[in-house]
Amino acid sequence: MSPSSREREYARRRYEDWQKRLATKRERQQRQRRRAIVAGSAAAVVLVIGAGVLWLKGGGTDDGTAALQPTTSASASASSSASASAGASTSAGASPSASAGASPSAAVSASPGAGPNPCPVPTVKAAAAQSFPSAPATSLAEGKSWKLTIKTTCGDVVATLDGAKAPASVANAIFLSGKKFWDGSPCHRLGLGGLKMLQCGDPTGTGTGGPGYQFGPVENAPADGVYKRGVLAMARSSSQDSQGSQFFIVFGDTQLPGGYTVFGSVTQGLDLIDKVAAGGVATLGADGGSGPPARAISIVSTSVTPA
User: Fold this and answer.
1) How many CB atoms lie within 10 A of CB 180?
2) I need a labelling partner for 25 at 20 to 30 A (CA). Which of 35, 39, 98, 252 fits?
3) Cα Rg of the chain, angstroms
4) What's the mean pLDDT in 195-200?
């Protein structure tokens, strides 16, 4: 074989070896991608399953915001809702804490057919922070029914409070309303995943604010763990004695483990909550199932009167 033939043969073999190595490398990369996809899918399933639990363990603060957080961890606020609710808070203890593993920047679109926002952009601002040394006496509820009227930037929401079954929480509502504690505060968290609720009651709008005290234990929690549409419940963190000022309104029947105080039921204005929910969230929080409502809504004022 001539020198030139040997060189060509050598070059041909080198090229074939290079092609084999390249094919092996591509095959290895494809296997790695397939494993990553499978692992990601499995993780997503686990996160979705765990969403309901995480929902309850949000990061609340002294007022039990984290727990039901519908707390987003206080669920990260969206820029649009941040401006609308600068200074408002979140928590659900109802904070039914939330959500499950979606990226904090992932957006949740409005429901098909949601249409334009029927609510004006809130212009009210939360009042100066107030802090109290202890929760009010349960005797303030007098063991009877009360009417709570929540004037919001989207309309009035009216609820009947049960002072017999939830005396501590009803006394708390009477006390805080009388102090104008909730005036101007945003409803900072909307849950659209395992827990369908709107969380309000934190004047800081962060989901970590509260009245300076905590109280418990949980009262009047459903024995079957089902929170019906229209239920008004207290948010809290992992401790049953961590209730404060944050509460949530359930707009879709929800199975919620752990126990949360049901202290009332909405009799008017639930359609307003539906309109807010139809807009979706502006930005998902760390729980992946809740965040600041894209259709911002704030409490203008509240009042409690005998039913």
Assistant:
1) 13
2) 39
3) 26
4) 95
- Site of tokens 């204005």: 269
pLDDT tens digits for range 173-182: 999 999 999 9
**Cβ atoms of 229 and 83 closer than 8 Å:** no
Element of type H or E holding 13: helix 3-55
Distance CA 232, CA 224 (A): 17
Rounded Cα distance, 184 and 170, in Å: 21
Domains, in order of start, for the chain? 51-306 (2.40.100.10)
State mean pLDDT over 9-35: 69
- Sort strands 231-234 and 226-227 into parallel, antiparallel or unpaired: unpaired
Q: Which of 44, 39, 41 is nearest to 99 (CA)?
A: 44
Nearest of 207, 164, 200 to residue 61 by alpha carbon: 207
Q: Phi/psi at 159 (nearest 5 deg)?
A: -140, 150
